[in-house]
Write a structure and sequence with these properties.
CATH architecture of one domain in chain A: 3-Layer(aba) Sandwich
CATH class of chain B: Mainly Alpha
CATH topology of one domain in chain A: Rossmann fold
Number of strands of chain B: 0
Largest sheet of chain A: 4 strands, parallel
CATH architecture of chain B: Up-down Bundle
Oligomer: heterodimer
Largest interface: A-B, 30 and 16 residues
Helix content of chain B: over 70%
CATH superfamily of one domain in chain A: NAD(P)-binding Rossmann-like Domain
Strand content of chain B: under 5%
Structural class of chain B: mainly alpha
CATH topology of chain B: Four Helix Bundle (Hemerythrin (Met), subunit A)
Helix content of chain A: 25-40%
Order of helices and strands of chain A: HEEHEHEHEEEEHEEHH
Number of domains of chain B: 1
Structural class of chain A: alpha/beta
Largest sheet of chain B: none
Number of helices of chain B: 4
Chain lengths: 281, 108
């Protein structure tokens, strides 16, 4: 599990452990490992996906790799060379190691690969052409291509932005327009989809969109309003002036991966409980 | 929350004034102390609108920060335990910034 200490990665690792399987969480030494420390059946290994030796060490003897490690926006946009090195060359190192072991690769790609689709008719289909519009989407498209061309057993998931039932600070600028269509996915559901992709033989060689489903489809302003209302916080969000790469998606092909366990009202219920616990409501 | 935040900020302001008026530190020591203090104060200024500081736990952190600032003021005025008191303010500032940094939006 690369990126195994992160918010999504740690969730996947915990789900693997809860099945009684063992996992190696691989991540940079300087990140916080708090979320995966002490999880039974999980070995922690610090390293860098751009280092071939460390990747070989991490993948030694594994049956499969879930590859999440990547440089994400906004950091990905400030240094193109670094983004390509981590997101594309890092993926190449994983593929090289997998090629030698015969393990399966589950690749966490992104709906950002579809580019800006806001002026098109929704929903975005899996077969929609890929359009790089920034360093991040370019890197994910290139990584997808090199995995496909490598011939390794793989599953590609294009994942929507992740929603966590936690206190999330309002960024200076919300990364989408207020009137833009958005569809997020609950973090545990995204983790479940990654895990199912690992175990379902039907998924091999295919690409799926992973997003929350009909109850999660709304505008950006509506999402932000409902999120912070549920927490019990008044906010004054500033939305992006430009459309960004998030939309409503056709997720029908990936439903068997179990990615739509929590509907949006259930998510709001969790936020309300959290708001009370934190003394915000 | 607003009140304790303003109190902590103004306490640090008083600490700075007291330090500037102190004849005990050399010029370079004074510059170093003021830089560290300013950094700790900036943590509050940069995060004063954050939601975390409106939570119960956030308010407690703010209160700990305020307490550490008062101790620092006492240390500056008495001329003893300055380093220890300043380090404690820095620790409290770091607790706040670390907690808030963890709470950024997730993208994929």
């Amino acid at each position: 599990m690369t990126g195994g200490a992160g918010r999504l990665g740690s969730e996947v690792v915990k789900q693997i452990a809860s099945r009684g399987d063992s996992a190696v969480a691989f991540d940079l030494p300087q990140v916080s490992w708090e979320a995966v420390k002490g999880v039974s059946g999980v070995d922690l290994l610090s390293g860098d996906v751009t280092d071939g030796k460390q990747v070989s060490e991490a993948t030694k003897g594994v049956d499969a790799v879930i590859h999440l490690a990547a440089l994400l926006p906004p950091r990905s946009e400030s240094n193109r060379e670094l983004t390509m090195r981590v997101n594309v060359k890092g993926t190449a190192k994983i593929v090289e190691s997998i090629g030698l072991t015969g393990a399966r690769l589950v690749f966490a790609s992104s709906v950002a690969t579809y580019g800006i689709t806001a002026i098109e008719e929704p929903p975005v289909l899996t077969s929609h052409p890929l359009q790089a519009h920034d360093c991040y989407s370019e890197s994910k498209i290139k990584a997808e291509r090199l995995i496909r061309d490598s011939g390794v057993d793989h599953v590609t998931l294009r994942i929507a932005p992740i929603a966590v039932a936690d206190l999330v600070e309002l960024p200076e600028t919300i990364p989408y327009r207020g009137d833009q269509r958005v569809e997020l996915i609950y973090v545990e559901d995204a983790a479940r989809a990654l895990l199912s992709a690992l175990y379902e033989s039907e998924a091999i060689g295919k690409t799926f969109i992973i997003a929350g489903g009909p109850t999660w489809r709304m505008t950006g302003a509506e999402y932000i309003q409902r999120f912070y209302d549920a927490l019990g916080v008044e906010v004054e969000p500033r939305f992006s002036d430009e459309y960004t790469a998030v939309d409503w998606y056709d997720t029908s092909q990936g439903l068997f991966l179990g990615c739509q366990g929590l509907n949006f009202n259930g998510f709001l219920g969790m936020l309300k409980a959290l708001g009370e616990q934190l003394g915000l409501r | 929350m607003g009140e304790s935040l303003e109190t902590a900020k103004s306490t640090l302001e008083r600490v700075m004034e007291a330090l500037r008026g102190s004849s005990k530190a050399s010029e370079s020591e004074l510059r170093d102390l003021l830089t560290r203090l300013q950094a700790a104060r900036n943590t509050l200024i940069q995060n004063e609108r954050k939601i975390w500081l409106r939570t119960k736990a956030g308010k407690e952190m703010l209160s700990d920060y305020g307490e550490a600032s008062l101790k620092l003021l006492g240390a500056v005025e008495s001329g003893s335990g300055l380093e220890e008191a300043l380090t404690e303010v820095e620790v409290q500032a770091k607790r706040i910034s670390d907690e808030i940094r963890k709470r950024s939006m997730v993208v994929t």
